[in-house]
């Protein structure tokens, strides 16, 4: 290992408490993009990030895509475009991350306040919304810059950064900006790196070369002009909730089998060679059980589990807006309910074909219900799946970085989640995109008690910095 890398690692260890304080300041800003009322906090988070970047000597520009199409009363929060270094003799790496987070309420079952970073000194677990998704990794890039400065080690590349505040709400506005900036702000980029997913287990790092896409829908069912007393009106009116539950029940069975005709036919068939690939991946069912906090898996073997997560589509029902959900026994008939579900998509599912079969199915099943209520189904947002080749110097550099920080070769993984802009970056810049996760499978991203382990954060900062050093050394040939 180059001596300067060891100097960098030592400095990261020395500065660890300061880096945790920076994460704690970021988690304290509840930048929930899905919540209208929280929009000023999302903007505050952008300002926080901009301030930190400028204090490190980066130049920062903002892009303002305007109003949200679905919620025109809300302005899309600023997309931050930053540059650190402008040395023509160095490689330029473009990194992306998001500063918005999923919603979180203490009442959802969090053990601690979701917007206070709560560090358990014994286990090293750092609980807080956004700790792993994606504030920890975003700050990882800033921390890497600062540790180089404090160690007096030259930064090995020029770094371009693109940080958005709408990823958890479909990355509204970002695709157009990426295409607009491909030949402008991003023009020097030699490769792209995104740190916004998770290791397959809790011990071994991975590099990720594929993602599922996502098509997210809502079904609105309404009838009565207002909520009704179920004792007075129950049995004499068509109830929207009953219709909605019936319709949602036609989508998927409890073994994960998608019941929408035509959807599974859009999936690229798996060949024998591909099947073998899954046998070689170091993953145990225990990794899954640790991640979900129970043994309630549909499959009992590793291959079927990984294929269900990465290689096949899934359909999940997320919630019902307008449903009675508080404690107690309110005897209400909700007048209007909105069901939310999404389909995780895989090669070769085209989003418009998915929409066609899903919306046709809903109309067909609705007719069969024969009700007096009204139903409207629509797509809320869609992002396409992405699969690339890990045979590129970008991946080779990241693999060396994993070896130097963790002393092992990384797993090569795909990911069941979605980062729709990954494909946009690849297509708009024409450059290789690498996913280099910081967090582990046990981090409970999107769930209650989301956390990032201190080890993953601090070693992750070393990993991001080491990756940039190896990127600078990799030969120019594109493989
Ligand atoms: C993998 C990434 N960290 C993530 O959580 N992505 C989200 C993207 C999304 C799509 N609709 C709303 N958010 C995900 O996979 O759910
Ligand atoms: Zn994320
Ligand atoms: Zn997320």
From TrEMBL:
Keywords per UniProt: Hydrolase, Manganese, Metal-binding, Metalloprotease, Protease
Site (Important for catalytic activity): 229
CDD domains according to UniProt: M20_dipept_like_CNDP (cd05676)
Gene Ontology MF: a single term: metal ion binding
Annotated SUPFAM superfamilies: Zn-dependent exopeptidases (SSF53187)
Residues the record marks as active site: 100, 167
Pfam families xrefs: M20_dimer, Peptidase_M20
UniProt binding sites for Mn(2+) 2: 98, 133, 196
CC cofactor note: Binds 2 manganese ions per subunit.
Biological processes annotated in GO: proteolysis
Peptidase M20 dimerisation domain ranges (all copies): 209-366
Residues annotated for substrate binding in this entry: 196, 229, 331, 344, 418, 446
Needed co-factor(s): Mn(2+)
Chain sites annotated for binding Mn(2+) 1: 133, 168, 446
Family: Belongs to the peptidase M20A family.
The name this protein goes by in its record: CNDP dipeptidase
Native organism: Morchella conica CCBAS932
Lineage, top ranks: Eukaryota, Fungi, Dikarya, Ascomycota, Pezizomycotina
